[in-house]
Amino acid sequence: MKQTKPTGGIKSLLEIFLVSTKLGLTSFGGPTAHLGYFHEEYVRRRKWMDEKSYADLVALAQFLPGPASSQVGIGIGVMRAGVLGGITSFIGFTLPSVIALILFALLLTGFDISNAGWIHGLKIVAVAVVAHAIMGMAKNLAPDLKRKAIALLALIGTLLWQSAFTQVGVILIAALLGFLLYRQYEQNEEVSSQFPIAKSFSAICLLLFFGLLIFLPIIREATGSYWIAMFDSFYRSGSLVFGGGHVVLPLLEQEFVPNGWLSEEAFLAGYGATQAVPGPLFTFAAYLGAVMKGWQGGVIATIAVFLPAFLLILGALPFWDSLRNNPKIKGAIMGVNAAVVGILLSAFYNPIWTSSIIEPIDFAFASILFSMLVFWKLPPWVIVLTGAFGGLLISYLP
């Protein structure tokens, strides 16, 4: 792989910030669409890296838990201007949607608009968007009978035993099943690459990732601090998400709704609003944090939910070759990815479907939005605006 030498300097960091901010303002459509935007901007137009370099980075982001598009953006920034470049790239891509969702949360809590008709419309939008995500992910992540069976077991487990521990258990069991079922998995060729990060620095990042995952719950129990509890919940959710931003929904829902930190209405309204803004779906955490603790909570939640992605991508870059060329590890990841489909199906039923589709007209409207998204291939922002307006109209019907 052709290595991109870090350039460093204020000029390079400013360039990264301007380009990533432009992408953060215009990248609608979810992680797959984001990767397309990145390819067009960074590979084809600016030629910051070659095709093989980009493909290797995308493969690594898909392998790790966390928001794949954000991790790719961080990796591009690292390869362009070192670790500071990665941080700058992340800020530019994420900041626009974080600001928009914090403002929306403050509006929601300040004016008590949770029962407004357009909010219900945004909840119906979530039905259409997640249904579309399930279709694409099931096709790619569970193409054969073995992985379909793993997805079915994950669906049953997460539906019947709804807790944060269930999510972790399902992922671990799926990894074991994938390891056993696909241990003879053959790859077509071995690949190699080089990344401009020292292995010692990467090792520190990985130790910090696991250290926070283990010790934050202990500190939470010992101190009883609300802020530490919030940070721990968002950090853990960001650490355990395989399969992209949509899968963070059930983890965050289980962390905050049953405990009464926020209502299910406010949770689903924010999830619908997140579809209206560009950038990564993980910025949904900014909305949740702002609903619970104002703009300060939004900032803390954003840092906490994205921190695992940072530590993992920085920690894994130099070790990627040995992992992806190991067929046993590959099999475990295949099992986890199949379980993601089942987890998403479970979240689609509860809380999304059960809280959004109440009357026949809700289902009819959801079908229209789904058709607009899947068959007519309209942009997501059009779907969101249509959903909000349609929800408002439905509220006036007798």
Question: What is the element layout, followed by pairings?
Answer:
Layout: H1 9-26, H2 31-45, H3 51-63, H4 68-111, H5 117-141, H6 145-160, H7 164-181, H8 199-223, H9 226-239, H10 248-256, H11 264-274, H12 284-316, H13 320-324, H14 327-356, H15 360-374, H16 380-395
Helix pairs in contact: 1-4, 2-4, 3-4, 4-11, 4-12, 5-11, 5-14, 5-15, 5-16, 6-7, 6-14, 7-14, 8-9, 8-12, 9-10, 9-12, 11-12, 15-16
3D structure, described in words:
It is a single chain. The chain has a domain at 119-395. Helix 2 crosses helix 4 (68-111). 77% of the residues lie in helices and 0% in strands. The chain is an all-alpha fold and 398 residues long. It is built from 16 helices and no strands.
Q: What would a concise description of this structure say?
A:
By secondary structure, the protein is an all-alpha fold. The protein contains 16 helices and no strands.
Q: What's the overall average pLDDT, rounded?
A: 83
Major β-sheet, in short?
A: none
Strand content: under 5%
Low-confidence runs (pLDDT<50, min 5 residues)? none
| Discrete helix count | 16
Q: Outline, from the CA principal axes?
A: globular
CA-based gyration radius: 20 Å
Task: Please state the structural category.
Answer: mainly alpha
Task: Spell the H/E element sequence.
Answer: HHHHHHHHHHHHHHHH
| Helix share, percent | over 70%
Number of strands: 0
Spatial separation of the terminal alpha carbons:
63 Å
Membrane topology: Multi-pass membrane protein
Keywords: Cell membrane, Membrane, Transmembrane, Transmembrane helix
Protein name: Chromate transporter
Family: Belongs to the chromate ion transporter (CHR) (TC 2.A.51) family.
